[in-house]
Design a protein that fits this description.
268 residues; mainly alpha; 11 helices; 75% helix
Length: 268
Amino acid sequence: MMLSKKTKYVLLAALVLGLAVIYVPLLVVLLNSVNSDTTFGWPPSGFTLEWWGRAAQNEGVLRALLTSLQAGLAATAIALVLGMMAAFALQRYRFFGKDTVSLLIILPIALPGIVTGIALNNAFRTILGIDLGLFTAIVAHATFCIVVVFNNVVARLRRMGGNLEEASMDLGADGITTFRLVTFPMLRSALLAGGLLAFALTFDEIIVTTFTLGAGLQTLPIWILDNLFRPNQAPVVNVVAAVLIVVSTVPVYLAQRLSGDTASGGRL
């Protein structure tokens, strides 16, 4: 389709404007994390790493970081196992209600976070009689992380087909050997990409966490929310926000690179 020069300029301007709306505020957060002015006047009056040093010594931040890492890694591990199993079941087998099961697996990521949080809170406390804590937050995060892994693995299984696995079993390999030597190497990058995306998703999640994390525990996003309007904590909040930006961006970038690895059949 041929576009006039004027149309191209308009589309380019719209693209630049859209990207600016998204990324300029993030850039401001990064700059304020090294801004020597505690009132964050603009432009920055100087450069300092003092706030990063304070953040590294802040016990609340360190505890919140540890909680975020524990919840994120555990939820990602659960999602990798269950998401891969669900993907194999729905992609390689036919059974009654297959489409319904697929919808139920994908649905948690489409539901509003506050609905999921309230539902899980009621389920844990009222139905199951479980006190809220780190375990309940991990289970809650895993419910939507499974979707990310599931989608990545299903997409890779569709591209792979079943010819190589059938050839392996025709040559005498059993199911476990075929999975270990044929299937898993081709799925490895899809699993890693799904795991990275799941970790990024759970690391900065706040709504579901608010309803499922026990009293006395905080993740980094919740710590930011609790300290956002405290003037003496404002510089440290900017540092923690900058860390979250990096922690969320790097896994997404790596996952994008890995998901695009189709020519090699998923080899790293």
